[in-house]
Amino acid sequence: MMRTAVTEMFGIDLPIFAFSHCRDVVVEASRAGGMGILGAAFLTPDELEVSLKWIDDHVEGKPYGVDVVFPGTFAELPSEPDPDEVLPREYRQFVSRLVDQADIPPLPAGDAAAFVKEHAHKMNMTPSESEKALEISLRHPVKFVVGALGVPPKHVIDAVHARGIKVGALVGSVRHALKQRDAGTDVLIAQGNEAGGHVGPISSLVLWPQIVDAVAPMPVLAAGGIGRGRQFAAAMTLGAAGIWCGSIWLGARESELNADMKEQLFRANSEDAVVSRALTGKPCRILKSAYTNAWDGAGAPKPLTFPLQSILAGEPLRRAERARRLDYWTYAIGQIVGDMKSETTVRQIFADLLTEYVETIEHVGALTAEPE
Ligand SMILES: Cc1cc2nc3c(=O)[nH]c(=O)nc-3n(C[C@H](O)[C@H](O)[C@H](O)COP(=O)(O)O)c2cc1C
């Protein structure tokens, strides 16, 4: 058990926040004494409702949160965009040619149209879609609502606060941190460039203390490159009130990835987690693959605006996954991937983080101890 501003705020035993798109990870993290945060971004409203209900039924009353993307810049699309209409033809041809040339078979005719449409709906992360996700979330006992990619509108923050729920935001610079603080958020997640997913250019080691100092006494969670206890200890030493991890859970038994995908991650080194616009149109740290390389190649088109580029990636990546051609697959992943070498469990990750954290704090304490 540890005591920090966020363990007090949420009534949790450990200041470990587990971001995941997988409800099983969320439940396990909350049951382990930390707090699971469900990423609502890739879920349709119906799927979000089902996932939250499932979490409520399994989390044993422990606190959990929801993460909703509020993009600052985006392409405004109809609620259920038709990929044929919203994606430029030459872009569709570019990605189809890429997987065709690798002899990756097309999706079965019947499945393809339905998959592409549903994927487009899920990737349509515009503020109005995010507000729908939030409305659904507020029907459940969530304790923490976190916004990513921009400042949530004031009425959203007010609606969350009116229910006694805390608001958090992911930030990658002091400028964004101050904006979020002034908008009324309660907790900031300072996410360094090592992280999986959308990133800014500043590394965690530099960013965390800058943000801690800029917004003190507001609690700050450290994110980006944390997968082991030494990094946990470093984050707390630099002034964080807790840690927020995303990549490390992907190697857990409970994660959303299948065995092939996990193996692909376990083979990767830290330098294989590259920052690219290939997946979403925004700078995003993802697993390097033939798909990401193609977007860096001569003659590749300039990536589309968010979320059109995410919609475009749906079909080729699904084809690669289905054909078990993981060399063409990609997924958001941080530099910590280089330390992820075999399947584990959420519980084991918690245990490992804590064991190494304690060893590290003892080791560092001993450096300054008076000689006996
Ligand atoms: C697969 C994956 C998907 C992510 N999706 C989101 C998201 O939808 N919303 C969000 O706020 N952060 C997202 N992130 C970022 C995480 O919230 C977190 O800040 C980041 O993973 C921390 O760095 P780490 O990957 O080194 O642990 C994602 C990260 C990963 C690895």
Task: Please describe what this structure looks like.
- With 372 residues, this protein is α/β, with parallel strands linked by helices.
- The chain folds into two domains: 5-74 and 125-253 and 343-363, TIM Barrel, CATH 3.20.20; 83-122 and 264-328, no CATH class.
- Helices cover 44% and strands 13% of the residues.
- The protein has helices at residues 5-10, 23-31, 45-58, 83-86, 89-101, 109-123, 127-137, 154-162, 174-183, 204-215, 229-237, 259-267, 290-296, 308-322, 346-367; strands at residues 16-20, 35-39, 64-69, 144-148, 166-171, 187-191, 197-198, 220-223, 242-245, 273-276, 284-287.
- The strands form two sheets. The chain has an eight-stranded parallel beta barrel with strand order 1-2-3-4-5-6-8-9, surrounded by six helices.
- It starts with a helix and ends in a 5-residue tail after the last helix.
- The mean pLDDT is 94.
- The chain binds flavin mononucleotide.
- Flavin mononucleotide binds at residues 19, 39, 41, 67, 69, 148, 170, 191, 194-197, 223-226, 244-248, 331-334, 336.
Short descriptors:
372 residues, alpha/beta, TIM Barrel, 8-stranded parallel β-barrel, 3-stranded antiparallel beta sheet, 11 strands, binds flavin mononucleotide
Oligomeric state as shown: single chain
The number of helical segments is 15
Mean pLDDT: 94
Q: How many beta-strand segments?
A: 11
Question: What is the helix fraction of residues, given as a range?
Answer: 40-55%
What order do the helices and strands follow?
A: HEHEHEHHHHEHEHEEHEHEHEEHHH
Instruction: Going across the biggest sheet, name each strand in turn.
Output: 1-2-3-4-5-6-8-9
CATH superfamily of the largest domain: Aldolase class I
CATH architecture of the largest domain: Alpha-Beta Barrel
